[in-house]
Amino acid sequence: MLLCKGHSLMDFSFLVNIIALLFSFFVAGAILGAVFSKPIRKKLVALLRLKRFKFLILDKSLHNPIIKPGTNPWTAEAVLNPAAAIIDNRTHLIYRAIGMDGVSRLGYASSADGIVFDKRLPYPVYVAQKPRNLPGRVRRYSPVLYPSGGSWGGCEDPRMVVIEGRVYVIFNMFDGWDFIRVAAISIAENDFMKEQFWKWDGPHILSRPGEIHKNWVLFPEKIDGKYAILHSVTPKIEVAYRYSIEDIGTTEPFIQSWVGSRNDLPVREDSWDSFVRGAGPPPVRTGRGWLLFYHAIDERDPGRYKLGAMLLDLSDPTKVLHRSSAPVLSPDEHYENNGKPGIVYACGAVVRGGKLFVYYGGADKVICVATAPLDAFLDELISGSQPSLATMNPAQTA
Q1: Pick from 4, 169, 252, 260: CA 20 to 30 A from residue 60's CA?
Q2: What is the 3-state composition of the chain as percent helix, strand, coil, each rounded to the nearest 5?
Q3: Can you give the pLDDT at residue 51?
Q4: How far apart are CA 207 and CA 372, in angstroms?
Q5: How many angstroms separate the CA atoms of 95 and 242, rounded?
């Protein structure tokens, strides 16, 4: 009788275990089915990418921000988005400054090591001609009224190159959202180095009238004997060639570029750069291609400008050889959020001693720098690994 009862208990226990096992298989199957469903897979991939990018962006420097708003009225509100070039072993910046009157002007600073800018001129080196005559009450700095960095007019976002003994600066001429033209000024390299009088030639308008364009960059050397202007990175890379910058709009035609809102372009699926905004610094020539940085926004992390990288073919720069699979610079530090939150905006890049220096504006308020060994950066970009820019540490400046 006891054996029968024991068998009954054993049979019951066995049955319970079988049911539990089947139930666990059912639950596990349901969970796995949910995990591997397309919507969940996308969310997991996005999460892993965000975690990965946060892991890569490390070691922000104590040097940042390297230039802050100044005491002069024309630099009092913000300094940002610097162009960069190396001449006579010094790094020279032409940066955008926003004054208390809300006008953007171009300032100048230079450095022996690319980090500490010991020379900074107390006056602007270029001022826009005749910004619009707004009522006095609105002629002021206001990030709320004017989302373009808080400025209602002037010279915005310069990019600088040196070609055949002449310094060229391309910038956005901004005079309200109904007038945004791309323009260029230039000066002899010798006059540039004198740091006085600033006898610029121009401005010469490059873009067509009645169209809104921004973020054009000039290649740092001629290609097939012509100046090469990269004027669009989306929906495709577009480069225009001209014999003369000064004659554009007269004997040389205005540059015809893609017209439309970047917000209306299709989203780049399953990538961090869902919305590509425009080029960053002028392309950097390397032995393996033109290194081009660009700005983009991830739809899974909206409201934050990030920096990506492409490698373009040297002979045909409309051909993309490699593209970063994640951002190389993202706005995670307080100085990249204390102002307009979530902004890193690069306009200058140079190479010193095998190290890449990228100069950018943080939060539309301050100027910062980020670096990487150039060869290692290119190795990772080409191999499909994720290159990153770590800001220069104090110990690395020696």
Answers
A1: 169
A2: 20, 35, 45
A3: 37
A4: 34
A5: 26
